[in-house]
Amino acid sequence: MDVQEVLTWADNLVFTKTGKHLTHVQEAILRGTWQRQKYPEIAKTCHRSEIHVKKEASKLWQLLSKTLNEDINQSNFPYTVERYQGTTISVIGNTSIKISKISADKISADTFYCPKSPQQQPQKDEKLKEETDNIQPKNRQDLTGTPTPTNFYNRTQELTTLKHWILEEKTPLITLLGLSGIGKTALTLQLIQQIQNEFDYIIWKSLENTPTLQTLETNIIEFLSQEQQTKLPTLLIDYLQTYRCLLIFDDLQNIFTPQQLAGHYQPEYENYATFIKKIAQTSHNSCLILITWEKPREITLLETENRPIYTLEINGLDNAQEILEQKNLSPPQDYSKLSELYQGNPLWLNIITATIQELFNSNISEFLSYEDLFLGDIEPLLNQHFQRLTQSEKQLLSWLANQNHPIDISKKPLSLQLTTPEFLKVIQSLNRRCLLQKITDNHRQQYILPPIIKQYIKNHILT
After folding, report:
1. Which of 194, 218, 283, 323 has the fewest beta carbons under 10 Å from its own?
2. What is the distance between the alpha carbons of residues 135 and 191, in angstroms, rounded to a whole number?
3. Other CB atoms within 10 A of residue 457 CB
């Protein structure tokens, strides 16, 4: 038998007993065992700690032993498989397993599974479920802090990039950066659905109510340590080394100081920067995703250390046609212009389409006939961003709002009452807040204000 036949045999055996297929880690254990690998080698192969692999292996051998009614372990597993080669396995009566010889060319997945007898007693069925649940590895999640899911629009490229970073490059730290409503949370929730089986634990924590780092760590450790039978470490990083965990910190910008340049922590939250650095610089198999409006300063420094630390800036949808079609707006030829004016931001487009339906009978052309861009119910959302700005940032934005073409920042504009260092720091801060639109022209980076940002400044800062 080759290794794939072994995995198929074991998977069918486990499925016959539990109704569940082998997990990724269980497959790695069986593959490594068949190839005479020890647990340290298997742990490296599946990117888990040796402790975790041994724990999962113990559960797997226990399950196989109960199923075959004989002692199965890493040493005798290959011999056991050879003995059972060319057999069919089915459920007889309540929980009994029948093993019969068949010809190898007739073995299939259906051969190994037989539905439970209709006469099976519910109490025994529940008992069997309880026994196997106690044996099967559990993928545990704490997503109590997640917002209510919204419509997920096509982000295939972003999902592919994130999965590559997490599953292939094993990056320990990712920052998802973007304006409110752009779809960072929806993207992360979709990502979790697609990679959840690759992690032992998935934990989502919202920083909306600005918890201290000590409170946050204590809460996470309490979740990770529940149902454990042995004395466990008191430091979160130790858990991240022992288990493969996916942590998500949402709304990180809430612990930054308003009216300072982007990414400055409030004094009582500066230890978050130390924690983030430790996540990036310590060897472990886990991943931390930061969701934020503002890029933390230490992230830029970490990215210069040639580490697999990544920032993904989430921009507007390339094609917002799906949103506008759902609202039955017309004419379709105006979809592209409306999406461009509102930066392809899903939340902003949903808000403004409600206005078009309410006031213009769903006619985009009539809505766009006005000279000034209408903000309406989007303004309170933008207020949250602009209340965080420094006076220097407002000054530069006011100047940019009067420019009709992209600007080159190789030289500071003479009309600005800022020193050159101040000018560059402000540009950098606005860029880290996602308030500038970058344009590359002849390999030179230029900046311009998006229409909706320019209109907000005209409404609130220049008046």
Report:
1. 283
2. 28
3. 22
Mean pLDDT per segment of 10 residues, for the chain of length 463 residues?
Answer: 81 81 85 88 77 86 87 86 64 48 41 39 44 47 79 88 95 97 94 93 95 94 71 77 94 97 96 96 94 96 88 91 88 94 95 95 95 95 96 95 89 88 96 93 87 94 68
Q: Which amino acid is at 458?
A: K
- Model-level pTM? 0.72
Residue 83's Cβ-side half-sphere holds a number of Cα atoms within 13 Å equal to: 9
C-alpha distances in angstroms, 204 versus 178, 285, 289?
A: 18, 17, 9
CA–centroid distance for 378 within its chain: 27
